[in-house]
Each structure stands twice: as C-alpha cells, then as structure tokens.
C-alpha cells in the first residue's frame, strides 16, 4: 500500500504553453509567482525568508510539458515531490496542473490544508501576473518571522500594524511603521492571508500556525528595487511583530 499522500491543483492561465513552461521550469520564472529561486550545481534553492531555504533537484524533465522536482529524504529517496504539467488549450489559454506528493510529520491533514492554501495563493499570483504584468521581470522581497505565539495573536498584531483590516476588492492604504506606504486593491483575503495588488506588483502577508511563522512575500515587476535593505527592514518589522 502506498502511504504517500498527495494534493493536486489545476488552473487555467491566459498565457501560451511556452510562457507557462518558462514560469515553472526556470529560476527566473519561478521567482515571478512563487519565491526567489536560484540554481547551482544541479540543485534548485528556494528562499522563503528569514534564513529558511529549501533545496531540491530535477528528477524528471519533458521540455515544454512536464517537470518533476524533489527534495531529498534521509534514505536517498525523495521525501517530497512537485510535478508540473503544462497543456495548451484552444483559444490561447494553458492548463497548469500541480501535484505535490509526500508530507512531513504526523499531522498530515493540517499540512495538506496549509500547503493547499499556499499553492492557491501562489497560483493566483501566476494568473494575476499574466493578467496585469506579462513579460515583466521581477524583484522579490521575502521575510519570515518565527514565534511561539498563537497564529491568531500574531495575525491580529500584523493587521493592527498595517493600519487596516480590509475586505476583498477593497482599495486600501496600508501604513506599516518605518516602511513604505502600500496602496492598492485587496485581491486575496482569508483568515490569515492578505494580498494587495499595487501599480507595480503584489504584497502578500500570511501567518502559519502549523509552522509557527508569519511571512511577507513581495513582487515588484519592471521597476528597480534595492532588495537587500528593503528585505532587512521588513525582516526587522516581522521580528518585532513576533516578539513576546
């Protein structure tokens, strides 16, 4: 009996198969909608902020159609795999399918729920990128704070520090202390998720009770961003937020 559990996602994108393939098969493409990626010596490394990085390898590769990535386990077999399938449709759209296999720990139902919501957010980013910023390069800012506080407590602090608790579709002006003002439209909203689409990209804020962390992932398209100092400022802001 196969004990490996998996989740599957599917999204139709207003883009050609070539554009979607580029977005899921290159570090530059993955950075556009996911988190910053770099490749070296056969490994691909994803940066989730706050010193939290994850490395993996390409396990299987069918150019233009299918890519399978995996993270190594203690026995040499992949502990977790991510399969992307690209299929063109009539009318110029493309179907992207994602299958994630393998979960950590014993609380797999909570992990399944958490990963599922995370993929929903990131795939939404990809759809919105093709809709609003197609072809533009990205500059990412990612920061993550870790805490022993309950997620609801940290989330309430984050909302208070942003200066607004907006509803989906609402135009908002956020004023985090010591940081840039954020003006845009709420394009994602959940219990502990807030997404803002601005003139030049996306701001994403989320809290994760399972992994005891709170994060922001930011995407700036076609503009110059001084990433290192901006990342440091946001990391400091989250570290203050998660302090007890």
User: Which parts are unreliable, with pLDDT below 50 for 5 consecutive residues or more?
Assistant: none
Radius of gyration, in Å, reads 18 Å
Structural class: alpha+beta
* CATH architecture designation of the largest domain: 2-Layer Sandwich
What topology, given as strand order, has the largest sheet?
A: 1-7-6-5-4-3-2
Tally of contiguous helical segments: 5
- Give the termini separation: 45 Å
Task: Write up this protein.
- The chain is of the alpha+beta class.
- It folds into two domains: 1-135, 2-Layer Sandwich (Alpha-D-Glucose-1,6-Bisphosphate, Chain A, domain 4), CATH 3.30.530; 136-244, START domain (Alpha-D-Glucose-1,6-Bisphosphate, Chain A, domain 4, 2-Layer Sandwich), CATH 3.30.530.
- The chain is 28% helix and 40% strand.
- The strands form two sheets. The chain has a seven-stranded antiparallel beta sheet. It has a six-stranded antiparallel beta sheet with strand order 8-13-12-11-10-9, with helices on both faces.
- Strand 5 and strand 6 (78-88) form a beta hairpin.
- Helix 1 (17-25) packs across helix 2.
- The longest helix has 25 residues, at 108-132.
């Amino acid at each position: 009996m196969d004990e490996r559990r998996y989740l599957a996602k599917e999204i139709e994108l207003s883009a050609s198969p070539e554009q979607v393939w580029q977005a899921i098969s290159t570090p530059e493409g993955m950075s556009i909608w996911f988190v910053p990626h770099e490749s070296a010596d056969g490994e691909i490394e994803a940066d989730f902020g706050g010193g939290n990085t994850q490395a993996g390898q390409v396990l299987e590769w069918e150019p233009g159609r299918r890519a399978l990535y995996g993270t190594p386990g203690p026995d040499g077999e992949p502990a977790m795999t991510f399969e992307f399938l690209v299929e063109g449709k009539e009318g110029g759209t493309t179907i992207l399918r994602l299958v994630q296999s393998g979960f950590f720990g014993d609380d797999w139902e909570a992990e399944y729920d958490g990963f599922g919501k995370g993929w929903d957010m990131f795939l939404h980013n990809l759809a919105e990128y093709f809709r609003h910023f197609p072809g533009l390069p990205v500059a990412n800012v990612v920061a993550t704070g870790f805490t022993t506080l309950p997620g609801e407590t940290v989330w309430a602090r984050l909302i208070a520090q942003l200066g607004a608790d907006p509803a989906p579709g609402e135009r908002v002006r956020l004023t985090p202390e010591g940081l840039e003002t954020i003006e845009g439209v709420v394009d994602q909203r959940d219990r502990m998720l807030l997404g803002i689409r601005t003139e030049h990209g996306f701001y994403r804020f989320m809290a994760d009770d399972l992994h005891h962390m709170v994060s922001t992932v930011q995407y700036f398209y076609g503009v110059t961003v001084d990433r290192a100092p901006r990342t440091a400022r946001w990391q400091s802001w989250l570290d203050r937020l998660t302090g007890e």
